[in-house]
Amino acid sequence: MDFQLSSEHLSLKESVASFVKKDHSFDRLRDLRNDPLGYSKEVWKKMAELGWMGLIYPEEYGGLELDFAFVMVLLEEFGRGLLPEPWISNVLLGGNLVLMGGSESQKHEVLPGVVSGDLMVTAAYLENDGRYDIDFCATSAEQRGDAYFISGKKIFVLDGLSADRFVVTTRTSGSVADRNGITLFMVSSQDDGVKLTPLKTMDGRNACILELKDVSVPGSNVIGEVGRGYPLLSEAIDQATAGLCAEMVGGMHASIDLTVAYLSERTQFGKPIGAFQTPQHKAADLFIQKELALSSVYYAIASIDEKTDERTLAVSIAKAKCSSAYMEITKAAIQLFGGIGFTNEGDIGFFLKRAKVSEILFGDTDYHLDRYTRLSGY
Amino acid sequence: MKVSYSSDEERFREEVRKWFEDNTPPDVKDQTLGGSTLEHGLMFKWHKTLYEKGWISPEFPKELGGAGLSETEQFIFNYEYSHCGAPRLKTKLVSLGMLAPLLLQHGTKEQQDRFIPDMLSGKTIWCQGFSEPNAGSDLASLNLKAVLEGDHFVLNGQKTWTSMADHADWIFLLVRTDSSGKKQEGISFLLADLKTPGITIRPIEALTDHAPFCEVFFDDVLVPKENLVGKMGEGWKLAGALLQHERLNAFPVGELIYAIETVRKNSAKTIYRGKPLIQDPVFRRKLAALEVDCNSLLYTFFRILSQLKVGSAPGPEASFLKVYGSELYRRVMDLNIEALGPYGQSWYNLEEFDNSIHQATMGWINSTSLTIWGGSSEIQRTVIATQVLKLPRK
Ligand SMILES: Cc1cc2nc3c(=O)[nH]c(=O)nc-3n(C[C@H](O)[C@H](O)[C@H](O)COP(=O)(O)OP(=O)(O)OC[C@H]3O[C@@H](n4cnc5c(N)ncnc54)[C@H](O)[C@@H]3O)c2cc1C
Ligand SMILES: Cc1cc2nc3c(=O)[nH]c(=O)nc-3n(C[C@H](O)[C@H](O)[C@H](O)COP(=O)(O)OP(=O)(O)OC[C@H]3O[C@@H](n4cnc5c(N)ncnc54)[C@H](O)[C@@H]3O)c2cc1C
């Protein structure tokens, strides 16, 4: 049992931190609110040049082949600055599904593009009436000859507006909530019958509704085996969720730092408001929540890295903890900032919005508590 | 990064687990939740069993009667101890847990040789005389007077909330030896034999209907000079060192995990309208939320242990373990009693119902004191705010 980071982890942490400081600012977030994509292609390109898209991918596809703790380190620093670039969706969802389930030719076709930052791939799996369930899939794929014809509608596709490719869940057998019978297909945004409706999330990033009308794809676009898509999707989403949790913890650190600094400098009643016991005790609670959330992330990340059987459970523990902690921390932070906390002129509000989006992404606290009870065999 | 124990650690864990499984007497088992209610005779017998095994203070070096365990092994040991259902050993809590490490650091050779072996064997039971009626959280306001006259200190005044004083042989005390300067500076650390003439002990009945603690009165009590620990006026510093030592162990996470597992078991056994309570959608979500918090705290201990392995000792930031742990334990006890439904109001019906109901109600009452002693939650939050987050004091 060892939760120590190595010097290589720490040196990545340093380079990411200095990148975030140099190439990113809250004013950039303010500007990007009006950009349909909500992130910058130049920054994305720079990140790719630093090798960060290939962090955990094998060297043969241009990756660095590092362990999963590097994901934690990278995303925690992104989270401190609230970087809006679509790293999680491309690297841990879209690209990851190809890496885990794709054929050699699919991998060679897709992964080098993800690593270079030139090809954008995400996953489309959420549907109306299914809330957060990733096994709820009504989108159909019908085989006619060599091709499959896909029809259905996916909602809140993460970073979907900028995607060139989508890994789409479809139903090839079974009923709407069966785990068996889900098949993953690679669909291009240019395919006939594909319609994207742009969406914005509260934190200024993009998503989309993806509608598919009789979209024809060749059988060679199946990722993994027909009817066996669920385990792949579940594994990728677990990894993406663990990564998201690390990003959330970074946001918690930063929110607390900003709040403590404000409490120390803002004077009312003749002294810093941080000298009054009510804000002090609130701040202590936020610190405690952050520490616990951080521990849950270490456990989840290490479980994934070690591929233990407990990793799925560990991810749900981490996501349940991080969702509630990040919300509690950012809501209290707004309160402790007073009026300025409720404005776009202050920075703290960005964290509240990101916390809400992160809470919902990959399932909220109750979703993960329920998943935890099922995995624990209650 | 690694989540699993090394193979040596895993072997040790299995050894400890097996030993406790085979050797914990049935009347000692499943007493964790009830806390302080284990009958004293049983407690002394259990102490002796552990002593004979060499496991009464396994964290001590071998030459001092311990087993020389590493930090991780000690954690594993404590965890497995609670996990088998054995209760917190009050016969060693303040002696081997607090006083012995202090004597090893700051006591004389004579004091170490005279007192530590009897702490290990259980021959001498100690109690902690810090709190007074007007010195609780504000401990430095204490006022038990000790005046040096020749070879003896003469003590006059009172201690209170002294746990186990009515079963103890000796007491370690913070006393006031000087009232002229800053209040922290005139405090000294003394050891006193409770049989000394002039000492009166009055048990105080707690909400459990037991008397876990006492008032201790001192009326011209003579304490030999050689029973001073450290120098005159060093008592506050020593108390700080002693409580510092306590802080990492201040919250036994194994007990918490035992408690939450008990809730899970109890709620799986409890039937509500033909189905186990644990399948009730509201109840199971509450239980899951607590399990998530308990696990997060357990992982926090893992994280701190990893830091200790490379030699970085946690400072004041470790105080959150006690605040959060004790408050979480209270929430777990709340749910444990909730799971019982009507049985949750039961009081000492040991003959009629099984022990788990008694443990639940007793544990629930007992848990309300966890956030008071050992630094109240309020005091600890202020410590975190001012010493960890460095918020201004005024
Ligand atoms: C939407 C909105 C509309 C508003 N409209 C108006 C308006 O029309 N006209 C107008 O005049 N004002 C208006 N206000 C201002 C509002 O009255 C102030 O925001 C409020 O009085 C708090 O002051 P502050 O923002 O300076 O926060 P601060 O007073 O700096 O407080 C910051 C934090 O410290 C806490 N705090 C401060 N002192 C203590 C203490 N002694 N003990 C413990 N905690 C303390 C506060 O509770 C808060 O959490 C508006 C504010 C908002 C958000
Ligand atoms: C079961 C039990 C066993 C004990 N065993 C021992 C023992 O063996 N030996 C021993 O010496 N003592 C023992 N104690 C005493 C314990 O250490 C004290 O109860 C504790 O220090 C609190 O002191 P108090 O009870 O006087 O409460 P007070 O200090 O009077 O506090 C009352 C309330 O006010 C709050 N408060 C106090 N100061 C502040 C502040 N500055 N800011 C905000 N809130 C504040 C406290 O948090 C608490 O909620 C025991 C207590 C209990 C309950």
Describe this structure in words.
The complex is a heterodimer of chains A (378) and B (394). By secondary structure, chain A is of the alpha+beta class. Chain A folds into 3 domains: 7-120, Acyl-CoA dehydrogenase/oxidase, N-terminal domain (Butyryl-Coa Dehydrogenase, subunit A, domain 1); 122-228, Butyryl-CoA Dehydrogenase, subunit A, domain 2, CATH 2.40.110.10; 231-375, Butyryl-CoA Dehydrogenase, subunit A, domain 3 (Up-down Bundle). Helix content of chain A is 51%, strand content 16%. In chain A, the strands form 3 sheets. Chain A has a 4-stranded mixed beta sheet with strand order 1-4-5-8. Chain A has a 4-stranded antiparallel beta sheet with strand order 2-3-7-6, with no helix packed on it. A two-stranded antiparallel sheet of chain A has the order 9-10. In chain A, β6 and β7 form a beta hairpin. The radius of gyration of chain A is 21 Å and the shape is globular. The two termini of chain A are 27 Å apart. A 4-stranded mixed beta sheet of chain B has the order 1-4-5-8. In chain B, strands 2-3-7-6 form a 4-stranded antiparallel beta sheet, with no helix packed on it. In chain B, 43% of the residues are buried. At the A-B interface, α7, β10, α8, α9 and α11 of A face α9, α10 and α12 of B. The structure holds flavin-adenine dinucleotide (2 copies). One flavin-adenine dinucleotide binds next to α8 and α9 of chain A.
- What is the second-level CATH architecture of the largest domain in chain B? Up-down Bundle
CATH top level label of the largest domain in chain B: Mainly Alpha
C-alpha geometry of chain B? globular
The largest sheet of chain B, given as strand count, sense and whether it forms a barrel, is:
4 strands, mixed
CATH superfamily assignment of the largest domain in chain A? Butyryl-CoA Dehydrogenase, subunit A, domain 3
Q: Strand fraction band of chain A?
A: 15-25%
Q: Main beta sheet of chain A, described? A: 4 strands, mixed
- CATH level-3 fold name of the largest domain in chain A: Butyryl-CoA Dehydrogenase, subunit A, domain 3
Ligands in the structure?
flavin-adenine dinucleotide
Number of strands of chain A: 10
What is the CA–CA distance across the termini of chain B?
42 Å
Strand order of the largest sheet of chain A: 1-4-5-8
- Poorly predicted runs of chain A: none
Which percent range fits the helix content of chain B? 40-55%
User: Helical content of chain A, roughly?
Assistant: 40-55%
Unreliable stretches of chain B: none
What's the helix count of chain B? 12
